[in-house]
Amino acid sequence: MSNETASQDPFSKNPLNGQTNHSSNDYDDQDDLFVSAYPEDSNKPIAPVEDLMNTIDLNDDLSESPAPVSSNIDSSVNVASSPDSSPVLISTPPPKSLPATIPVLSNTNTQPALYSFSPDSNESITGPASSLQSSTNKPTPTINTASQIQITVSEPHKIGEGMVSYMVYTVTTKTTLPYFRRQSLSVDRRFSDFLGLHEKLQAKHAHLGRIVPPPPSKSVVGTAMMKFSKQDEQSSSTEFLSKRRFALERYLQRNAEHPIICADPDFREFLELEANLPRSTSTSALSGASVKRMFGYFNETVSKMTYKMDETDTWFEQKQTWIEQLDGQLRKLYSSVESLIHHRKELTVATAQLAKSTAILGNCEEHNSLSCALSQLASTHEKVEKIYEKQANNDFQYMAELLKEYISLIGSVRGVFHERVKAFQNLSTLEQNLSRKREQKTRLELAMKHDRIPPIEEEIRDLDNKVEKAKEDFETISANIKQEFERFDINRIRDFKQNFIRYMESLLETQESLVECWESFLPESKSIAV
């Protein structure tokens, strides 16, 4: 689907107020962010539909062939053309399945194409079969799913009271992807369901080198404020709920943009299953799983500090250095934007106080024209206060959240780099064990202890197979990381471009509104009688 279609998505909404946006500045009409994903022979002529239909025997019993006709044609027919004739169909044998593993590219500077996986690959892309998935409509990873699915999170409402209360969010999905049951879906999910979804996706995809988007972080203060606020006092937690709703929506949409994660059965179940999901107890801060996870993080940190991988691929060295630099710069910019938002909110409060004081002064003034001017000035300051408040929200929406999201994503990128180090460490350990066993066999042969050699040979064969499997895993995760990193870089540039344009538009709108306010007040000040 083209980027032009994506930019005119009728489902696009403002993340804070839920209103539909119709911005035409998100993409240029000629932009193409996924050039490397197109096949090289995409310009070859395609046979007309009439010619394709003429090749089909209408006397065949189609009921015995569950596969669609188009898929048979694609796998067994090539199109050739000549200068003096229309395209000709040439019958060829069906292509063989691609291997499950992806070899490491000999040229490390060559960027691999995005997601050229074979559906017949031995590597499971979608995991175990789901009850929601039809056997004749299996999900196949596509190059770009962002323009085919739109997810919104809305209507946060409180269930229960006190410590046992929790917030439920309505997740609405609109999609044209074929492996979803319906084009429009709506389910209710609590915050722990989002955390449980991330744990499942992380366990299935991170060790393969795929960047799994992180969920919004927990907020103890915000959660406590939400739990103990009454129905008539929930305005104090409105800002917290608005920010969390927006963060959850971005989290789901970022997962949906990933062509493999979007087809994952757990992700589709999260969007489709109307019943409540089984509660994920491991997401609790005081659960045994969380304590175990904390010790796991500690062990990984120690492993990162004590184990040094001898890197042979300069691509990974360059990207890891670049990621560290990008992380530092994003954190500095995020700190500056947070400070800007804080001062903008202080300016909003100060402007409101100024409007109130000016109104009081106008009521005390005996001079009629001056009193009217002061009242009008107070009204103008109230309008300016609303403008400042709106701009503070835009600062958060278009800048702060984007920076915070990418700081978290960089943490996931670091995670997949560490998974590659773990794969290399496992390979090195197996190779060392294999070398020791071979040395042990040599010593036994020299000592003429032939009765002890067969068990050693069996262990050597077993270790040899494990080493080959570990090599394949290491090559696979290395190739996957390069694909994921290319996709991460493309999305980063796209997201920053979109948000910068929207942010500049919001600043321009703010300044225009301020000019209108003060221009409308100017005649009042000139009409004061002296």
From TrEMBL:
InterPro entries: AH/BAR_dom_sf, PX_dom, PX_dom_sf, Vps5_C. GO terms for biological process: early endosome to Golgi transport; protein transport. One of its GO terms (molecular function) is phosphatidylinositol binding. SMART domains: PX (SM00312). PROSITE patterns: PX (PS50195). SUPFAM superfamilies: BAR/IMD domain-like, PX domain. The keyword Nucleotide-binding does not apply. Its main location: cytoplasm. One of its GO terms (cellular component) is endosome membrane. It is a peripheral membrane protein. CDD domains: BAR_SNX1_2 (cd07623), PX_SNX1_2_like (cd06859). It is found in: Cytoplasm; Golgi apparatus; Membrane. Pfam families: PX (PF00787), Vps5 (PF09325). Residues 420-480 form a coiled coil. The keyword Ligase does not apply. Residues 74-88 have a biased composition (Low complexity). Residues 1-88, 120-142 are annotated as: Disordered. Gene3D superfamilies: Arfaptin homology (AH) domain/BAR domain, Phox-like domain. Belongs to the sorting nexin family. This is PX domain-containing protein. It comes from Blomia tropicalis.
